[in-house]
Amino acid sequence: MFYLLSGTILTFSVLTITSRRMLRAAVYLLFVLVATSGLYFLLNYQFLAAIQLTLYAGGIVVLIIFSILLTGHISEKFKNPAPWKLWMGASVFIVGSAVALWALLSNELVRDTGVEEVQIDMHLIGNQLMGTGKNGFVLPFEIISILLLASMVAAIVIAKKENN
To answer: How many CA atoms lie within 13 A of 42 on its CB side?
Structure first.
Protein backbone atom coordinates (compact mmCIF):
# COMPACT_ATOMS: atom_id res chain seq x y z
CA MET A 1 0.00 0.00 0.00
CA PHE A 2 2.90 2.33 0.77
CA TYR A 3 4.34 1.86 -2.73
CA LEU A 4 0.94 2.42 -4.33
CA LEU A 5 0.39 5.67 -2.41
CA SER A 6 3.96 6.83 -3.02
CA GLY A 7 3.64 6.13 -6.73
CA THR A 8 0.35 8.00 -6.81
CA ILE A 9 1.90 11.00 -5.06
CA LEU A 10 4.91 11.07 -7.39
CA THR A 11 2.85 10.60 -10.55
CA PHE A 12 0.23 13.21 -9.77
CA SER A 13 2.83 15.65 -8.44
CA VAL A 14 4.60 15.57 -11.78
CA LEU A 15 1.27 15.87 -13.59
CA THR A 16 0.34 18.86 -11.40
CA ILE A 17 3.39 20.87 -12.34
CA THR A 18 3.53 19.81 -16.00
CA SER A 19 -0.15 20.20 -16.85
CA ARG A 20 -0.90 23.12 -19.14
CA ARG A 21 -4.55 23.34 -18.08
CA MET A 22 -5.29 25.03 -14.78
CA LEU A 23 -8.32 22.95 -13.79
CA ARG A 24 -6.53 19.66 -14.46
CA ALA A 25 -3.58 20.80 -12.34
CA ALA A 26 -5.96 21.53 -9.45
CA VAL A 27 -7.57 18.08 -9.77
CA TYR A 28 -4.13 16.43 -9.86
CA LEU A 29 -3.26 18.35 -6.70
CA LEU A 30 -6.39 16.92 -5.09
CA PHE A 31 -5.17 13.38 -5.83
CA VAL A 32 -1.77 14.20 -4.31
CA LEU A 33 -3.34 15.49 -1.10
CA VAL A 34 -5.70 12.51 -0.77
CA ALA A 35 -2.80 10.08 -1.26
CA THR A 36 -0.80 12.00 1.35
CA SER A 37 -3.62 11.51 3.83
CA GLY A 38 -3.51 7.79 2.94
CA LEU A 39 0.13 7.75 4.04
CA TYR A 40 -0.88 9.35 7.32
CA PHE A 41 -3.49 6.62 7.80
CA LEU A 42 -0.79 4.00 7.20
CA LEU A 43 1.28 5.58 9.98
CA ASN A 44 -1.75 5.50 12.32
CA TYR A 45 -1.93 9.29 12.41
CA GLN A 46 -5.70 9.39 12.02
CA PHE A 47 -6.07 12.94 13.32
CA LEU A 48 -3.46 14.32 10.94
CA ALA A 49 -5.00 12.36 8.06
CA ALA A 50 -8.44 13.75 8.85
CA ILE A 51 -7.04 17.29 8.95
CA GLN A 52 -5.28 16.65 5.63
CA LEU A 53 -8.52 15.48 4.04
CA THR A 54 -10.80 18.15 5.43
CA LEU A 55 -8.55 21.20 5.38
CA TYR A 56 -6.39 20.68 2.32
CA ALA A 57 -8.21 18.24 0.06
CA GLY A 58 -11.67 19.37 1.09
CA GLY A 59 -11.10 23.05 1.63
CA ILE A 60 -8.15 24.52 -0.20
CA VAL A 61 -8.48 22.52 -3.43
CA VAL A 62 -12.22 23.17 -3.58
CA LEU A 63 -11.46 26.87 -3.08
CA ILE A 64 -8.93 26.78 -5.93
CA ILE A 65 -11.32 24.94 -8.25
CA PHE A 66 -14.15 27.30 -7.29
CA SER A 67 -12.01 30.34 -8.08
CA ILE A 68 -10.96 28.86 -11.43
CA LEU A 69 -14.57 28.23 -12.38
CA LEU A 70 -15.69 31.67 -11.14
CA THR A 71 -13.10 33.65 -13.05
CA GLY A 72 -13.87 31.96 -16.36
CA HIS A 73 -10.32 30.80 -17.05
CA ILE A 74 -11.34 27.15 -17.27
CA SER A 75 -10.34 26.72 -20.91
CA GLU A 76 -7.15 28.75 -20.62
CA LYS A 77 -3.90 26.90 -21.37
CA PHE A 78 -0.55 27.82 -19.91
CA LYS A 79 2.18 28.65 -22.39
CA ASN A 80 5.07 26.26 -22.89
CA PRO A 81 7.95 27.29 -20.63
CA ALA A 82 11.11 28.69 -22.14
CA PRO A 83 13.93 26.15 -22.55
CA TRP A 84 16.16 27.95 -20.06
CA LYS A 85 13.42 27.65 -17.42
CA LEU A 86 13.25 23.90 -18.03
CA TRP A 87 17.02 23.62 -17.61
CA MET A 88 16.94 25.69 -14.44
CA GLY A 89 14.11 23.59 -13.02
CA ALA A 90 15.94 20.37 -13.87
CA SER A 91 19.17 21.63 -12.29
CA VAL A 92 17.34 22.67 -9.09
CA PHE A 93 15.72 19.22 -9.00
CA ILE A 94 19.08 17.47 -9.40
CA VAL A 95 20.82 19.60 -6.77
CA GLY A 96 17.91 19.25 -4.33
CA SER A 97 17.78 15.48 -4.82
CA ALA A 98 21.54 15.21 -4.32
CA VAL A 99 21.39 17.22 -1.08
CA ALA A 100 18.48 15.12 0.22
CA LEU A 101 20.23 11.84 -0.63
CA TRP A 102 23.47 13.04 0.92
CA ALA A 103 21.62 14.01 4.12
CA LEU A 104 19.86 10.65 4.29
CA LEU A 105 22.91 8.53 3.55
CA SER A 106 25.44 10.43 5.66
CA ASN A 107 23.40 10.36 8.88
CA GLU A 108 22.57 7.31 10.90
CA LEU A 109 18.86 6.95 11.54
CA VAL A 110 18.17 6.37 15.22
CA ARG A 111 14.90 4.73 16.23
CA ASP A 112 15.29 4.77 20.01
CA THR A 113 15.55 8.36 21.20
CA GLY A 114 15.24 7.54 24.89
CA VAL A 115 12.19 9.79 25.21
CA GLU A 116 9.19 8.31 26.95
CA GLU A 117 6.07 8.03 24.80
CA VAL A 118 3.33 10.46 25.75
CA GLN A 119 -0.27 9.32 25.81
CA ILE A 120 -2.55 11.31 23.51
CA ASP A 121 -5.72 12.72 25.02
CA MET A 122 -8.16 13.42 22.17
CA HIS A 123 -10.54 15.33 24.46
CA LEU A 124 -7.73 17.73 25.40
CA ILE A 125 -6.84 18.24 21.72
CA GLY A 126 -10.51 18.84 20.84
CA ASN A 127 -10.96 21.32 23.68
CA GLN A 128 -7.85 23.23 22.62
CA LEU A 129 -8.93 23.33 18.98
CA MET A 130 -12.39 24.63 19.88
CA GLY A 131 -11.28 26.77 22.84
CA THR A 132 -11.12 30.55 22.93
CA GLY A 133 -8.97 30.88 26.03
CA LYS A 134 -5.29 30.19 26.57
CA ASN A 135 -3.94 27.64 24.04
CA GLY A 136 -7.21 27.88 22.08
CA PHE A 137 -7.19 27.85 18.29
CA VAL A 138 -10.64 29.16 17.33
CA LEU A 139 -9.53 32.79 16.96
CA PRO A 140 -6.54 32.04 14.66
CA PHE A 141 -8.73 29.77 12.48
CA GLU A 142 -11.38 32.49 12.20
CA ILE A 143 -8.80 35.14 11.31
CA ILE A 144 -7.31 32.88 8.64
CA SER A 145 -10.76 32.14 7.22
CA ILE A 146 -11.53 35.88 6.97
CA LEU A 147 -8.14 36.45 5.32
CA LEU A 148 -8.81 33.67 2.80
CA LEU A 149 -12.26 35.07 2.06
CA ALA A 150 -10.86 38.57 1.53
CA SER A 151 -8.12 37.29 -0.77
CA MET A 152 -10.65 35.23 -2.71
CA VAL A 153 -12.93 38.24 -3.22
CA ALA A 154 -9.93 40.38 -4.23
CA ALA A 155 -8.77 37.74 -6.72
CA ILE A 156 -12.24 37.56 -8.27
CA VAL A 157 -12.47 41.38 -8.51
CA ILE A 158 -9.05 41.57 -10.16
CA ALA A 159 -9.85 38.74 -12.57
CA LYS A 160 -13.22 40.20 -13.55
CA LYS A 161 -11.97 43.75 -14.18
CA GLU A 162 -12.36 44.83 -17.75
CA ASN A 163 -9.33 46.27 -19.50
CA ASN A 164 -9.83 49.98 -20.14
So the answer is: 12
| Cβ pair 155, 67 in contact under 8 A | yes
Q: Which domain holds residue 40?
A: 1-76
pTM score, whole prediction: 0.63
Provide the mean pLDDT of the chain: 83
If asked whether residues 17 and 71 sit together in one domain, one would say: yes
d(CA 101, CA 18): 24
- H-helix segments, 55-135: 61-71, 83-106, 122-130
Helices (H), the chain: 2-18, 22-42, 46-51, 61-71, 83-106, 122-130, 138-160
Q: What angle do CA 25, 44, 15 make, to 5 degrees?
A: 15
Domain count, the chain: 3
Cα–chain center distance at 86? 23
